[in-house]
Amino acid sequence: MPTNVTVEYAKAHERYLSAKTKEEKIAALEEMISEAPSHKGGENLRKQLNQRLAKLKRQKEVKTSRKSIMIPKKGDAQVCILGLTQSGKSTLLSQLTNAKPKISSYPYTTKKPQIGTCDYQGVKIQLIEIPSTFQPMFMSIAHSSDALILIHKNKEDLEKLKNTITKFRIKKTFIEINRDEDIEKIKEKLWKNLGLIKIFCKEPGQKPVEKPLVLKKGSTIQDAARNLHKDFSKYFKFARIWGRSSKYEGQPFGLDHELEDGDIVEFHIT
Q1: Which of 157, 234, 235, 249 could form a disulfide with 152 if both were Cys (CB 3.0 to 4.6 A apart)?
Q2: Which regions of the chain carry the CATH code 3.10.20.30?
Q3: CA dihedral 65, 67, 68, 71 (to 10 degrees)
Q4: Quick one: pLDDT at residue 15?
């Protein structure tokens, strides 16, 4: 231990040496840094302590990230809701889905992920609200989701959220939501952001099925056929389309025709 240190530094150094966990070592190091001497030798000491502290924090982050939580995807898409404490995450989840998360005026009410299902014109979107602590094990949910909702009260909070997803290297599309926005408009924004289309299949002479088939934007009739059954396209003759991708109702197309959101597809097979 260097000379000319304060009593507080010496005590913190003793706690560091006797620490049994990384958390205890980090706390002791932070106090040692704040109590380090201000002379030239103290500058070198602080540099060494800061390097040691950074190494410990990296080790802790890696260890914590190994305890990542994965929530199986249910429905047509999975979306993670991110927001600072008291931003309205739980209220939004309850308004968009069948979930009943705990809502209170106290900060950090959400202690674990809350899950609900949002229905958008027959499309089932799984929404997951994660705690505002942004622990790595919860941020793994954001990593595996299809998109993000960033709910905020002001521009400052929004910037903090963007910095958080940058820090965790999350490269997902997201929508920015003010907690006072209309719920139906939020659903529309979310659907457009997901980059998906919904089509409605039908058999000749029958009405379209109510449950839409959800595909990636840019999908073709062949993609739809394969989604229905891997061998479906083998017996395909043609398909009639009602919707935005056809020039007239019931126009026939082959497998390479690109579909658009809301199309009705009538398959004809051999």
Answers
A1: 157
A2: 196-269
A3: 180
A4: 87
